[in-house]
Automatic annotation (TrEMBL):
Record has Mitochondrion as a keyword: no
PANTHER family: ALPHA- 1,3 -FUCOSYLTRANSFERASE, ALPHA-(1,3)-FUCOSYLTRANSFERASE 10
Lineage of producing organism: Bacteria, Pseudomonadati, Verrucomicrobiota, Opitutia, Puniceicoccales
UniProt-recorded Gene Ontology molecular function terms: fucosyltransferase activity
GO cellular component: membrane
Name of this chain's protein: Glycosyltransferase
Ranges for domain Fucosyltransferase C-terminal: 117-252
Keyword Transferase: yes
SUPFAM superfamilies for the chain: UDP-Glycosyltransferase/glycogen phosphorylase
Annotated ranges, domain Alpha-(1,3)-fucosyltransferase FucT N-terminal: 9-94
Keyword list, A-Z: Glycosyltransferase, Transferase
Pfam families named in the record: FucT_N, Glyco_transf_10
Family: Belongs to the glycosyltransferase 10 family.
Length: 310
């Protein structure tokens, strides 16, 4: 039986392969996908204003902490916990990390002794954003930890290894793999805002040093990482890090802990979780919000122009 055709387009992304991305890979299970500048569904991000030129059904998706603007979109997928039928919570770590869910499931036959022997460095750090106003807690903690031990910074910010690690999951995994710990602090602390940083550390079999979503333990086993929210101060957390670093028994115990609660990937990794929502978006017969508006603010329209798909 042939699949129904679905015309898609993407805009306002900071780089996207329109033919090969999480949305097309999911939707192609149920639809024949055609990329078109006259789409049935537009998927857009917060990076521009081209979405304003489309009058079709729109889906806003972001990996950042941005809230949807319901005057501009019909549906949304973000990291937020919103009680709204138009919204699906989709944490960025699912699609933002190259780590397959099955690689995060702990095996009983894993050679922990060999893993421990492979860890020849203390801690890694990969950061681009150096804006202290936006990321002050992360910068402060990095500086405090480096006062005790060498933290290998492989990103553009405070690089101390002589080269910048290229973007891409495998490059990050290779850089992190020899390290006992990985410093993975988010840009901000917000319920639900967990990006790829935590998962990338787990994939490399580092112990994550985490700061971000206060609800992270609902999705990952809190015994497998160190969560800043569970410590009274930066200094108390650093004391605990150094204690684990000096005690192989405690370090091994943490390495043996599964990443996920019950060693089972959480619901967000299930294809059907997002796909069922997307099908509901597509099947919704309501007129798109862009056709229901009776007036438009013209100030930003001049910034937008049609984006071709080729």
């Amino acid at each position: 039986m042939s699949k129904p055709k679905l015309k898609l387009d993407f805009c306002d992304f900071n780089g996207v392969d329109k033919l090969n991305n999480p949305f097309t890979r999911l939707l192609s299970q149920r639809y024949e996908i055609e990329i078109s500048d006259r789409p049935d569904l537009l998927i857009f991000q917060e990076g521009g204003h081209m979405n304003r030129l489309y009058t079709c059904k729109k889906l806003f998706w972001t990996g950042e902490s941005v809230l949807p603007d319901w005057d501009r979109t019909d549906y949304a997928m973000t990291c937020h916990y919103l009680d709204d039928a138009r919204h699906l919570r989709m944490p960025f770590y699912v699609w933002g990390s190259a780590a397959p869910a099955e690689d995060l499931v702990r095996r009983d036959d894993e050679d922990i002794a060999a893993l421990m022997r492979s860890k020849t460095r203390f801690c890694s750090f990969l950061v681009t954003n150096s804006n202290r106003r936006r990321t002050g807690p992360r910068i402060d903690f990095f500086e405090k930890l480096t006062a005790h031990r060498q933290v290998d910074s492989g990103g553009p910010y405070r690089n101390n290894i002589g080269r910048v690690i290229p973007r891409g999951g495998e490059f990050k995994r290779e850089f992190n793999a020899p390290c006992k710990f990985h410093l993975c602090w988010e840009n901000k602390s917000l319920p639900g805002y967990t990006t790829e940083k935590l998962v990338d550390a787990m994939w490399a079999r580092c112990i994550p040093i985490y700061w971000g979503s206060p609800r992270v333990a609902e999705e990952f086993n809190p015994k497998s990482f160190l969560d800043r929210s569970q410590f009274a101060s930066d200094e108390a957390m650093i004391e605990r890090i150094l204690e684990i670093d000096a005690d192989n028994a405690q370090w091994e115990a943490m390495l043996r802990e599964p990443c996920f609660n019950d060693n089972t990937p959480n619901q967000y990794y299930s294809d059907s979780y997002a796909l069922d929502f997307l099908q509901r978006v597509i099947d919704d017969p309501a007129p798109p919000v862009s056709r229901r508006r009776k007036f438009f603010r013209l100030g930003r329209w001049k910034l937008a122009k049609r984006q071709h798909f080729y």
